[in-house]
Amino acid sequence: MKADRPIASPARRALAVVVAVLAALTASAAMLAAPAAASGADVATDCTPDGTTACVSPIVLDNNNDPVPGIEVTITGNDFEAVVTSTDGPVSVAVPTVGRYTLTVDPATVPDGMSTDVPERQVVAQTGSTARGAFRIVQGSAPAENGSTTAPSETGTGGEDAEDSGIGDEGTTENASGWPEFSQVWQQFGSGIRFGLLLALASVGLSLIYGTTGISTFSHGEQVTLGALLGFISVNWWGLPVWAAVLATIVICAATGWFQDVVLWGPLRRRGTPVMQLMIVTIGLSMSLQYVIQMFIGGRSQRVLPQNARPVEIAGITLSAASWLSMLVALAVIGVIAWFLTQTRIGRATRAVSDNAALAAATGINPDRIVRIVWTMSTGLAGLSGMLLAISFGSFTWTLGMILLLLMFASVTLGGMGTAFGALAGSIVIGLVVEMSTLIPGMPSSLRYASGLLILILVLLIRPQGLLGRAVRVG
């Protein structure tokens, strides 16, 4: 679907720059809102990973794979140090940045006549996941040749934590130059495709809203958070099965979009309210929704699925079973959207209104009716995206929408403002860039989402119409 809006005009470029700056400020505020991890010996051992938190978990087992309590393990790396004691259950701590951490067993805490298979493990912590290093307590002395600090680390999805990044064998360690090896790059590529597909569900709706109304809505991020919240409520409060919770989330979120257009956007459109003022209204709506959502779940992260995630490896990429299913759902929904836009009367009318609303109205299309359908469909897609993201990454917080908003704007700008298929392509690129940027040695975790801002600025400077959009000269 092509966009015929005057992207090349100075006014449009100024508006796009304002959108980029506001989105960057919003994302920065969300990053600052995330609590910093503690360091030292006295740390919390119930870390739950989310979009801004990385966790490290030592696991101590005996020959029967039963937990061994009372073993002290020191976690060091990236100017961080903490000492944790193993228990009968999982223990994990939040680390300040992504990167490599060393887990060292204190031999004084190992029972007499026993030893560990290796004294140290190295793990790679990633935001939104728990990196696990496993030690085995064996009879006698540890083999001398097995004391290497580069022994393979184990990562998984057990305990109280969310899904792991999947980097968990010796092939994922960095080489002598400090750069990651192929297996780690391949794992992050798979994580990037997952993130891109789930981001696309929200970005396509944002692009459709812009294409039919000209509004860059800042409240779209909160529609994503609302989807995660409704998924949490449906599963944990109402006791619905996951498939019913997904349907309930889509229906309720779509209803909020219909309600917004009935009571807010429709009347403002009929009054001829300028687009810039409408955009300011979306900022106010975004702030209101943020604190309403925070009233429900507070400032802590919440898990949609109470049970532990189950890792599944496909083609050398390890993700949770929920992640693989979420990707399949996202692909199916994206296919339905493509069919809807290209093969149905309403879909073709939507594209016509996006291209030229006045000309579409002259051919008998009712633009207001199409816009209402777009608002309803887009908020439903955003809700689905939020729930699938929360399921795939294990948990969510009230800042989820703020963090994703910049990436959604970067996706639709890269693909072409107002072009649904461009938003899909842009989301895949942004997902890959965000996930694979963590492989750069020394890359701080807080900058992984800033890569989206960099792409946004470069697109505005080099090709403002995006990949699939086209510039139109006015005057």
From TrEMBL:
The keyword Magnesium does not apply. Residues 146-155 have a biased composition (Polar residues). Pfam families: BPD_transp_2. The chain crosses the membrane at residues 192-212, 246-266, 278-297, 317-341, 373-396, 402-434, 446-463. It is a multi-pass membrane protein. The keyword ATP-binding does not apply. Keywords: Amino-acid transport, Cell inner membrane, Cell membrane, Membrane, Signal, Transmembrane, Transmembrane helix, Transport. InterPro entries: ABC_transp_permease, BCAA_transport_permease. It is found in: Cell membrane. It comes from the Bacteria. Belongs to the binding-protein-dependent transport system permease family. LivHM subfamily. This is Branched-chain amino acid transport system permease protein. It comes from Promicromonospora iranensis.
